[in-house]
Specification:
The complex is a heterodimer.
Chain A lengths: L4 H15 L1 H14 L2 H8 L9 H15 L5 E5 L8 E8 L5 E8 L16 H9 L6 H23 L3 H5 L8 H14 L1 H14 L1 H4 L2 H7 L3 H8 L18 H11 L5 E7 L7 E6 L11 E5 L5 E5 L4 H14 L5 H27 L7 H30 L7 H22 L2 H27 L5 H38 L1
Antiparallel strand pairs in A: 1-2, 1-4, 2-3, 4-5, 5-6, 6-7
Helix pairs in contact in A: 1-6, 2-5, 2-15, 2-16, 4-13, 6-9, 8-15, 9-14, 15-16, 16-17, 16-18, 17-18, 18-19
Chain B lengths: L8 H32 L4 H25 L3 H21 L5
Helix pairs in contact in B: 1-2, 1-3, 2-3
The chains are: A alpha+beta, B mainly alpha.
């Protein structure tokens, strides 16, 4: 802490940024990847090539689930759309010990079956990690929220630190060591500042009912059932009746829902209490039609086909909340806005990474165990993450398609690479370890299109070409980072020799 | 604020005091503002709860900035405590859950 407002803010910016910096970098990077969650899912399941009408695909998925998971408490499906070819189904089954086990499976849009499709979480992995951090509920979400809130504080204190924020934006002094990193940090941070502020604020907002439920408590007390019903009136639920009953004509209900959405596509579809007299079919409007996250929902008695309720949000405060939520999700068309999200996300990731580097560069001369730890830990924890992401994609192409537990194996590869990179960074001199990690990361990304072409064939559509393009661009960027680091490595020992 | 030598015990305690003020004061102020706004906003109770949550989300970073910008430790703590006391009184004055 320092005297003076600007100095206090600089202190808060540096230390606040350090505490969750590594975590925020991982959240920013996986969040950026999640912009193309559907496309990544498509790329990771090259076996799914056919495209069908979403209503047909969901009807086919339900036929399969009726056989594969008849005793499930609910089936949750994401209907395919322009961006995603497969139907993504989540459902619970009893495992060998009789305990509930949740499964995520991609179902072929035509046959409704998962048989020939490689078992993978696809883009869902980065999306889940982005806010659950692979920790048990609710701790991952709470930690992610805390990090997001700190991000907002760090952004505000970062703005307050600047004497001349506009002039700093036009300042770039390359090849000048710390000053260049500072300029890069400023340009990247200021360039997409509205995005950084928006994405931090709306990100915290997505989990706000978990982290800050006090407004709801104030108005509803212990009556949480009433609160949920009021806040989300479209969600229709009822208990299991206990009497078995076959599902009715679900295709007719899905078609009716589409008509209610003015012909717009269906999005998420859930069947609760399947094969019970209390079964409910919920159909949500596809959320890519508008910025807001909740476009409308229709609930049907899944046995008789009777419409139970239909709801589209009209209330101003909840609509504002949905709009802000949708801004964070960035699901709305057209693809131009998604690329903008992607680029801004890259800028945010790079801002955090350069910030962490600045923290260490400024304190090299001070020495001390803490500073040395930060410098070394940053190498693998930050630099190792893009490597782990490439490892995750490579595992998708290289692991045998029929491997059991393949979905988890890919995730294990991700954490193994990240962990090993972190260990490696702790053991090596940072200047060297950075070059080695970055070089390996460049190789991994550049190898991806090649490995993919050898294992599953050349890209045949826009998703495949786009994926290869991004992989090559990232690989190229990592290659470009190597020569300056080599130059620095050569000059540093010389300085040391001169001193002795 | 008077600036003790960095890395001295007094400096570390001063930092710890502000961090605690920011964490407890920041979250406490957000929670209290959420409760007061939820009860006082002239909206249905669901709408008021949603709007109040959005307002409260702005209170948290504002309090954290205040705590670290304040000139003295006394001021750093007084800010969030004042917000919490006023907001809790306002929430209480509005009566119980509506």
């Amino acid at each position: 802490m320092k005297t003076g407002f600007r100095q206090s803010m600089a202190w808060l910016h540096a230390w606040g940024g350090l505490i969750f910096g590594w975590l925020l970098f991982a959240m920013a990077a996986t969040g950026t990847a999640s912009v193309f969650k559907s496309e990544i899912s498509d790329w990771m399941r090259p076996e799914v090539r056919m495209r069908t009408d979403p209503v047909d695909a969901v009807a086919a998925a339900i036929r399969y689930l009726s056989v594969a998971a008849p005793a499930s408490s609910g089936w949750y499906m994401d209907a395919p759309d322009d961006r995603l070819a497969a139907t993504i189904a989540t459902y619970d089954v009893k495992d060998a010990n009789g305990a509930d086990e949740y499964r995520l499976a991609a179902l072929d849009p035509v046959t409704g079956r998962p048989d020939a499709i490689r078992d993978t979480l696809g883009g869902e992995f980065f999306y889940r990690f982005h806010f659950e951090l692979q920790l048990p509920y609710p701790w991952g979400r709470i930690l992610a929220s805390a990090a997001g809130m700190l991000m907002l504080v760090v952004l505000i204190s970062g703005i307050a630190t600047h004497r001349r924020i506009f002039a700093d934006f036009f300042t770039m002094r390359p090849g000048k060591g710390k000053r260049s990193w500072l300029d890069a940090h400023n340009v990247l941070g200021v360039l997409a500042l509205p995005f950084h502020l928006m994405i931090s604020f709306t990100g915290v907002l997505t989990l706000i009912t978990l982290t800050l439920p006090w407004a709801i408590t104030a108005n509803y007390g212990a009556d949480t059932a009433r609160a949920f019903a009021d806040l989300d009136p479209g969600y229709y639920t009822r208990p299991r009746a206990g009497r078995p009953a076959p599902l009715g004509d679900l295709r007719a209900m899905l078609t009716d829902a589409r008509a209610r959405f003015g012909g717009d596509a269906i999005g998420r579809v859930t069947v609760e209490n399947p094969n019970d007299a209390g079964a409910v079919l919920l159909v949500y409007r596809n959320d890519s039609n508008g910025v807001g996250y909740d476009g409308g929902v229709a609930a049907y008695d899944a046995v008789t086909g009777r419409l139970l309720s239909a709801y589209a949000e009209q209330r101003p405060a909840k609509s504002l909340y949905n709009l802000l939520y949708g801004l964070h999700m960035g699901r709305f068309a057209p693809s131009f806005s998604r690329w903008l999200y992607f680029l801004c996300g890259l800028a945010l990731s790079a801002t955090i990474a350069t910030g962490l580097l600045l923290w260490t560069i400024g304190r090299e001369k001070e020495g001390g165990l803490g500073n040395a730890f930060v410098a070394r830990f940053t190498v693998g924890a930050t630099g190792g993450l893009p490597l782990a992401m490439a490892g995750f994609f490579l595992a998708n192409r290289i692991l045998p398609v029929t491997l059991t537990g393949r979905q988890d194996a890919e995730v294990h590869v991700f954490f193994l690479v990240w962990g090993l990179a972190t260990l490696f960074g702790l053991l090596r001199r940072p200047a060297r370890a950075w070059i080695e990690i970055v070089a390996l990361t460049a190789c991994a990304w550049l190898a991806l299109p090649l490995v993919s072409a050898v294992t599953v064939g050349l890209p045949y559509d826009i998703v495949g070409l786009g994926f290869d393009g991004v992989a090559l661009a990232l690989g190229g960027a990592f290659v470009a980072a190597i020569p300056p680091m080599l130059r620095k490595l050569r000059t540093v020992p010389k300085l040391r020799e001169r001193r002795t | 604020m008077a600036r003790p030598e960095p890395r001295s015990l007094a400096y570390r305690l001063a930092v710890a005091s502000r961090v605690v003020a920011a964490l407890i004061g920041g979250y406490g102020a957000a929670a209290a503002v959420a409760m007061a706004s939820a009860r006082w906003l002239p909206l249905s109770r669901a709408e008021a709860a949603t709007a109040a949550t959005l307002i409260a989300m702005l209170a948290l970073p504002a309090v954290v900035i205040w705590v670290f910008a304040a000139r003295s430790a006394w001021r750093a703590w007084a800010g969030p405590i004042a917000v919490i006391v006023l907001a809790v009184l306002a929430a209480w004055a509005a009566g119980g859950p509506r």
